[in-house]
TrEMBL record:
Keywords: Aminopeptidase, Hydrolase, Protease, Serine protease. This is Xaa-Pro dipeptidyl-peptidase. Its EC number is 3.4.14.11. One of its GO terms (biological process) is proteolysis. Gene3D superfamilies: 1.10.246.70, alpha/beta hydrolase (3.40.50.1820), Galactose-binding domain-like (2.60.120.260). It comes from the Bacteria. Residues 365-582 form the Xaa-Pro dipeptidyl-peptidase C-terminal domain. Coiled coil: none annotated. It catalyses: Hydrolyzes Xaa-Pro-|- bonds to release unblocked, N-terminal dipeptides from substrates including Ala-Pro-|-p-nitroanilide and (sequentially) Tyr-Pro-|-Phe-Pro-|-Gly-Pro-|-Ile. Belongs to the peptidase S15 family. GO terms for molecular function: aminopeptidase activity; dipeptidyl-peptidase activity; serine-type peptidase activity. Pfam families: FIMAH (PF22888), Peptidase_S15 (PF02129), PepX_C (PF08530).
Length: 678
């Protein structure tokens, strides 16, 4: 038989019971992340995670249907976010999740188009990264969002190959996480992100890493950091180079329009046909010029707006998204004092997840923890740069390019063999030219072999065997005086490492349309057989050339793997004595001068090429050196020494009339002669 509790006792006891329960509940703490050694730890269950699909409304209408585009996003977050835990987000967006359409490459076996002399009035097909974002980061207290960019998969709109519409659509996810945009489920019910702290980190490889660059330049609130891996900073430099139409490595004939068509995997894609045709026209494969189409896809223009930190990762052997992409991005980040970190490696178009897995995950963990959870773990006190060397070992440095790098001019000279030489000292100009006959069917790797042999399709110039090892760190530049027997051609420069065993390795290369003599933005007609000076940059590199090897420069016309491939026969006449290669070198490769005459020859050369601009300065410097020669002939070394010291004062006096490089070289040479002879 149950005993009944009198009502008056219930009145007294119940408030105490309820109060006790309330007090007990108030002491229960909400779930928290766990931090050890400066890193979040895996304490949340992926198996119990909440997974939801949302369609986020953007501010763009790229398909012109009168409604804002929506992008599909899959969200995975710890179940504890339903119990009060708020978490930051790691976000990757991709145009590749629904696969690719067959790619319609442009025909590159066509003739180049000359500019009218009298005018009137890329894609990096890397698969999505392995699914380690949610595997690794969700247990550590992060939500992960994987989205499809406009025009692909279940997102509507049209792909636009990186323009502002694509960037703003990508940004909508961050706006939603911060309450500035709306999202809906498949039934049209609005979904909010009240579990989010609002802090977001974006990452991805290739196209997936390119869109974070673009979004960062909008300065959107909530984007705290980006980790672009093998990413584009300027789409022009992905499909063009110094005015030349140039393919991404491995995708000859691709362009912005073929990429857009490849990722156009939405339902009823025909609504985007007009836009695809517009992209094809505006990209301008005819001239290759930089225009408004490319300017809108140049994220370098917006670096000053970046509020997020940037962790750049790139392969030194990535010929898909070439090294200029990360170099110019890195330089602009430095100019604007953006918090940053850099990993450069010896692999191609890939992520460190596949070759430096443990160190990569630890570094990425610390990076996201610092920027998204405000955990002080020392990541920003580490050296700024991790660089992988050719032997696959890693070193850390405080800057890139290397802090001790110096641009060093190596001059082209005709040699005693069929090849020419690369020398620190220019020789007297003989005004002799040597011919290159274009044959686009021959690959570059064939053309760089056996540099001492005569080959009509190239001109090769090599240094003597190096007595020390040297590091090339930065962007090589080539300046070539040449004439072309037709109104248009390709110009290609190949920088080569020649081993003592006759091996050859192309270190880097660069291309130019000679019609872009003055700028990338405007082609001008050139006169056949008239000499011009063409100057163009090669792709940046970081490469160690071993002792006993030789550095080579090979000049060709068309590059089978990258440029348009016209019919053979164009002849380019190169004037080596009026041409040079500028290498960003760590280490002094210069030859010591042996006579005053060599310094006088240098001054004449620099005056001819315009590096010394004042004729009076040249006359005074030469007169001073002539006096030194006379004293030397008489054996009056004391007077010769005093005049050389006076020459240094005169050189300093005229320093404003010459480039810094010329001033440094002349001063260096005079110091050598003084130390050697006096």
């Amino acid at each position: 038989m149950k005993k009944l509790i009198p009502f008056f006792l219930l009145v007294l006891i119940l408030p105490m019971i309820l109060g006790a329960n309330i007090a007990e509940e108030s002491t229960v703490e909400p779930p928290m992340i766990v931090v050890e050694e400066g890193m979040t730890q895996p304490v949340f269950s992926k198996e119990e995670a909440i997974v939801e699909r949302v369609f986020i409304e953007t501010e763009v209408d790229s398909d012109g249907d009168g409604e804002n585009d929506r992008i599909r996003a899959d969200v995975i977050r710890p179940k504890e976010t339903e119990e009060g835990l708020k978490v930051p987000v790691i976000y990757e967006i991709s145009p590749y999740r629904a696969g690719l359409n067959p790619i319609d490459f442009h025909n590159v076996d066509v003739e180049l188009t000359p500019i009218n002399p009298n005018p009137i009035g890329g894609k990096p097909y890397a698969a999505d990264l392995p699914g380690y974002y949610d595997d690794y980061f969700l247990p550590r207290g992060y939500a992960v969002i994987l989205a499809e960019s406009i025009g692909s998969g279940m997102s509507n709109g049209c792909p636009t190959s990186g323009d502002m519409q694509e960037v703003l659509a990508t940004r909508a996810v961050i706006d939603w996480l911060n309450g500035r945009a709306s999202a809906f489920d498949a039934d049209g019910e609005e979904i909010t992100a009240d579990w989010s702290t609002g802090k977001v980190g974006m990452t991805g490889v290739s196209y997936n890493g390119t869109l974070p660059n673009g979004v960062a330049t909008t300065g959107v609130e909530g984007l705290e950091t980006i980790v672009p891996i093998g990413a584009i900073s300027s789409w022009y430099d992905y499909y063009r180079s110094n005015g030349a139409v140039v393919a991404p490595g491995g995708y000859q004939g691709e362009d912005a329009d073929s990429l857009a068509r490849a990722v156009l995997t939405r339902n009823n894609p025909e609504v985007c046909l007009d836009l695809m045709n517009q992209i094809e026209e505006e990209q301008d494969r005819i001239t290759g010029d930089y225009n408004e189409f490319w300017n809108e896809r140049n994220y370098l223009n917006g670096v000053e707006n970046i509020k997020a930190s940037v962790f750049v990762v790139h392969g030194l052997n990535d010929w898909n998204v070439k090294t200029k992409q990360f170099t110019q991005w890195w330089e602009e980040l430095e100019k604007h004092d953006v918090p940053r970190k850099l990993w450069i490696h010896q692999h191609g178009h890939s992520s460190p997840y596949s070759f430096r897995n443990e160190e990569w995950l630890i570094t990425l963990n610390k990076w996201f923890d610092y920027w998204l959870y405000d955990i002080e773990n020392g990541i920003m006190d580490e050296p700024m740069v991790d660089k992988q060397k050719e032997d696959r070992s890693w070193v850390t440095e405080n800057a890139w390019p290397h802090e001790d790098v110096r641009d060093t001019a190596l001059y082209l000279t005709s040699g005693s063999t069929e090849s020419g030489n690369l020398s620190h000292r220019p020789v007297s100009d003989t005004n002799t030219s040597y011919q290159v006959i274009d044959d686009s069917s021959i690959r570059a790797q064939t053309l760089v072999q056996n540099p001492l042999e005569d080959m009509e399709n190239r001109q090769a110039y090599v240094t003597p065997e190096l007595t020390n090892a040297y590091r090339i760190s930065g962007t090589p530049v080539v300046s070539v005086k040449a004439s072309i027997d037709r109104p248009v051609a390709n110009l290609t420069a190949l920088l080569v490492d020649y081993g003592p065993d006759e091996s050859s390795r192309i270190i880097t290369r660069g291309w130019m349309d000679p019609q872009n003599l003055q700028s990338d933005s405007q082609s001008v007609a050139i006169t056949p057989d008239k000499p011009y000076t063409f100057t163009w940059n090669m792709q940046p590199t970081d490469y160690d050339v071993a002792e006993g090897h030789r550095i080579g420069l090979v000049l060709i016309s068309s590059d089978y793997e990258y440029t348009i491939r016209p019919q053979p026969g164009t002849t380019i006449s190169i004037y080596p004595e009026q041409s040079y290669l500028s290498l960003p070198l760590v280490g002094d490769i210069t030859e010591e001068p042996t006579s005053i005459k060599q310094i006088k020859d240098l001054i004449n050369y620099y005056e001819d090429e315009g590096s010394i601009t004042d004729p009076t300065a040249v006359r005074q410097l030469q007169t001073h050196l002539t006096a030194v020669e006379l004293f030397e002939e008489k054996g009056e070394t004391n007077k010769a020494s005093k005049h050389l010291a006076g020459f240094k004062l005169l050189l300093n006096y005229h320093s404003d009339h010459m480039t810094k490089e010329v001033f440094d070289i002349l001063q260096h040479d005079v110091d050598i002669l003084i130390d050697k002879n006096y």
